[in-house]
Amino acid sequence: MAGFEKYRIPPEGGFKIAKLDADDRSCFKDGKEKAQERILKLRAELAGLQEMLYAEGKQRLLVVFQAIDTGGKDGTIRAVFEGVNPQGVKVASFKAPTPLELAHDYLWRVHACVPARGEIVVFNRSHYEDVLIVRVKGWIDADETKRRYRQIRDFERMLAEEGTTILKFYLHISKDEQKERLLERIDIPEKQWKFNPADLEERKLWDDYQRAFEDALNETSAHTAPWYAIPANRNWYRNLAVLSILVDTLKGLKMSYPKQTEDLAPYRQRLLAE
Amino acid sequence: MAGFEKYRIPPEGGFKIAKLDADDRSCFKDGKEKAQERILKLRAELAGLQEMLYAEGKQRLLVVFQAIDTGGKDGTIRAVFEGVNPQGVKVASFKAPTPLELAHDYLWRVHACVPARGEIVVFNRSHYEDVLIVRVKGWIDADETKRRYRQIRDFERMLAEEGTTILKFYLHISKDEQKERLLERIDIPEKQWKFNPADLEERKLWDDYQRAFEDALNETSAHTAPWYAIPANRNWYRNLAVLSILVDTLKGLKMSYPKQTEDLAPYRQRLLAE
Questions:
Q1: pLDDT digits (tens, 9 = 90+) for B39-58
Q2: What's the burial of A249, exposed, middle or buried (CB within 10 Å: 0-12/13-18/19+)?
Q3: Which parts of A130-205 are beta strand (E)?
Q4: Where are the beta strands (DSSP E) in chain B?
């Protein structure tokens, strides 16, 4: 499934959001049903790899999800991580900051949630909100945005140097797809609670958000903390892409179950002699 | 599945651990295969109920697991909660306390982890370690143990009064079953990393642990924070029992999806008119 690597944004940037087709499915042409089979297999692989990560207790994995409203962050997290032992995976959701959080620098609340050894932590939104919505709304100017890109690069480099593997996914949907999804939230009774009128105001800022995403992704994709821009109009393609990249990354960590250094034979005898 | 309610320890106590058969399967006599089918159904139900809990965002659920070493806490958590949206379920594992934790009262670290509205939090071990291992090892005396029972009752009553539903599961295995499980950890290569020689020392204190469990369960089972003592020699029976009680409890919360109070028709028109 190495094909999905093409969605990786190189450290030197050059990503053009307008050129990424949200309907693209060029890395898997066998259709939705075959994709679901593949997803089930990848999920089982992920569960096994996560168990080894946990058992080994050496490495840490941080997975960041960002997207525009209705972009599918919740759905992806669910589809990718259900089936994994909930003991080894933590999801941290970053909403509008609380007064206590606002009383600190913007990296404070995310730093508190990064993974410990053996853990996978999933960020549903993240410190990137502080160069996205904050910038689009004009709460910080161009200079501060640039400074924050540098701070974020420095922060993530430190995490990586200290042993955290980082994957960042931007889920890309089209403006038409967002309209469909907002209409669904209006029309399907069980989804209505998710509808927030403010989403329509945000939608007016579509172009600004696209620019902010493009800029942030180009400025902060690093070898050790890459961004992947995933075509996400089709849920199954999006899930397959994220799962594939995740599984490949975990395989690349070359983990192993910890070895017992002690000779266990005497313990067996003690038990059998009881 | 109301039968499993019989494992609930009444607030007035009277639970005799020696009388609980760890091999009991009197609440489900159709055997393992039928049980697995039932477990799949209950898991799907649990996933739906958890989603509603999260959507409603009003209630909180705390689920505590305690057991002797090899009792099956990890396996139960995995079997019961895999398949549930990881975003709404957090597992807190309490190991030997850190210096920072020891510098506080014993409830400090657990209080920090109790569920927020809409959340399920699972405790893998808990503040009960502080009346179990701590007592068995003689680190606190009978008076202090009694004082802690009261403190724990008060703490959990406060949580319940403030809106947290609490379920506590003691997973009961027999001494022979523990021997089998320890031998497995010695004999199966992929399980060897789990083997800890100290477990054999703990095993010598089996009777003391049984007494400590019996006492703690009788002293701290309350209407609003009941203990269930689950026969756990058979994994499938244990998983079925925990899932059944959990699902019944969530159903009893009478949750509903939040209603939209606003008329959404104008928003639909705005979107369609774009």
A1: 999 999 999 999 999 999 99
A2: middle
A3: 164-172
A4: 60-67, 89-93, 120-124, 164-172, 227-231
Find all residues with CB under 8 Å of B180, minimum gap 6, and list them.
none
Look at chain B and count its residues: 274
Q: Which of A59, B149, B14 is nearest to B140 (CA)?
A: B149
pLDDT for res A261: 85
Structure tokens at A74: 């919740």
B-facing residues of A in 80-109 (CB < 8 A) are: 81-87, 89-91, 93
Tens of pLDDT, residue by residue over B111-169, are 999 999 999 999 999 999 999 999 999 999 999 999 999 999 999 999 999 999 999 99
Provide the CB-side half-sphere exposure for B62 (13 A, CA). 27
For the cut 60, the answer to whether the pLDDT of residue A1 exceeds it is no
Residue closest to A163 by CA, chosen among A60, A49, A50, A56: A60
Å from A58 to nearest chain B CA?
14
Residue of chain A with shortest Cα separation from B74? A87
CA B32 to chain CA mean position, Å: 22
Class of CATH domain A4-272: alpha beta
Query: What tens digit of pLDDT does each residue of B210-265 get?
Result: 999 999 999 999 999 999 999 999 999 999 999 999 999 999 999 999 888 889 99
pLDDT tens, position by position, A224-241: 999 999 999 999 999 999
